[in-house]
Write a structure and sequence with these properties.
about 400 residues; mainly alpha; 15 helices
Length: about 400
């Protein structure tokens, strides 16, 4: 039931959510630029405390905020459609069709952007996770919001009990289990078919959690609720992690110094997102929203531009950074082979990356260039969507 206080005019956007979404888009771009520019490339895990540096670790770790924020805010935004007057039948149809459309884009436009070659290994990431979760949520919007919230909380807190079930032991059901919970490379007759590292169940739980919390974002005591909830999630993370408890399969141990120990302590599992991972990242994000709501001026407008047209920002940044990486490697006389069908190479042809990549300082410079090139595209597309109400614009 939507109260009069919770109603929003069609087309109304909550600035804080767009600013937050734009901020994590910019952070996400840094991580993706690192993939294509940094000399470590796919050679080692930048979160491995035994081989990384503090700056490289931080460059990679900060991207952990991105996917949970995107999926959570997608759930919140879906609930806000009720507040804007969309009824359940229309919303259910829209979620199903747009969800399937996003899955199609992930297999085609987005995966080709990562590869720049045909054939390529499809790479199912956050767009797939949002799309398939939307399609699933199309059935749950008929339920009371409290029930959907309960389903989301149950999935997030309990799905790690399924960790002992391993796809390699499931025979013909192995691919289905990877897509559902474990994640990994889908194989067909022993050959790689799809890289599916965003399994459906935990990400759907995160979207259902966001949907169930939707009413909070129009409540008078929103900031207090978000601060308490975020702090509670961080406490849960600290207790579970500190006691080597439930909610993450990656153990931590004391290292040679405090910095390396902290690195290992904060290395929690993203693929699939563990309970500890969600608490550590989303807890901080929820506590930031009240502060972000107070941002004014050019900085907030800058991030809001990205966040109001996330699909344009996401797709365009992939094509721009990939093109820029090829140009930079060519000008520097570096090999280009590894930069085509990069996901396949990262699993089956690591030798293709030999001689590629630049120092971290150049990676940061490339990140700034990519963000500045994407910004005018997003600003233009934002103005188009503000002027027009064509039905197909809601799918882009």
């Amino acid at each position: 039931m939507i109260t009069a206080r919770q109603r929003l005019a069609p087309g109304t956007r909550i600035a804080a959510l767009d600013i937050l979404r734009g901020l994590v888009i910019v952070i996400m771009a840094l991580d993706h630029v690192r993939d294509y520019f940094h000399e470590s490339g796919w050679a080692f895990d930048p979160l491995d405390s035994s081989v990384t540096t503090p700056l490289l670790y931080a460059t990679r770790w900060i991207s952990n905020f991105c996917a949970p924020t995107f999926v959570f805010l997608a759930g919140v935004s879906i609930w806000l459609q009720f507040a804007k007057g969309k009824d359940k039948p229309r919303l259910s149809r829209f979620l199903l069709t747009r969800g399937l459309w996003l899955v199609f884009l992930e297999f085609t436009v987005v995966s080709f952007g990562w590869a720049f070659t045909v054939p390529y290994l499809p790479f199912l990431q956050v767009i797939w996770a949002i799309g398939i979760s939307m399609a699933a949520l199309s059935a749950l919007v008929w339920l009371p919001g409290e029930v959907v919230l309960g389903i989301g909380v149950a999935i997030l807190t309990l799905h790690n009990t399924l960790d002992p079930i391993q796809a390699k032991n499931l025979g013909q059901l192995s691919n289905l289990w990877k897509v559902t919970h474990e994640g990994g490379m889908l194989l067909w007759e022993g050959k790689p078919l799809v890289a599916a590292f965003y399994p459906v169940l935990p990400w759907f739980g995160l979207m259902a959690f966001g949907f169930g919390l939707g009413p909070v974002f129009l409540a008078e005591n929103r900031d207090r609720i978000l601060m308490r909830l975020g702090l509670g999630m961080l406490v849960v993370f600290a207790v579970l992690r500190g006691l080597h408890g439930y909610g993450d399969p990656l153990p931590w141990t004391q290292q040679a110094d405090a910095v390396k120990t902290a690195m290992m302590f904060m290395k929690v599992q993203k693929y699939p997102p563990s309970l500890q991972y969600v608490c550590a990242t989303l807890g901080i994000v929820l506590m930031l929203i009240p502060a972000i709501d107070r941002w004014k001026g050019r900085v907030s407008e800058f991030f809001q531009t990205f966040g109001s047209v996330p699909m344009m920002a996401y797709v365009s940044h992939i094509y721009i950074l990939h093109t820029l990486s090829l140009a930079a490697h060519a000008l520097a006389g570096r090999p280009l082979d590894g930069l085509f069908n990069i996901m396949y190479n990262s699993f089956f042809r690591l030798e293709a990356f030999t001689g590629e990549g630049f120092a971290l300082v150049w990676t940061y410079l490339a990140w700034i260039v990519v963000v500045l090139l994407v910004y005018p595209l997003c600003r233009w597309w934002r103005s188009v969507k503000a002027r027009r109400r064509d039905w197909w614009l809601s799918y882009l």
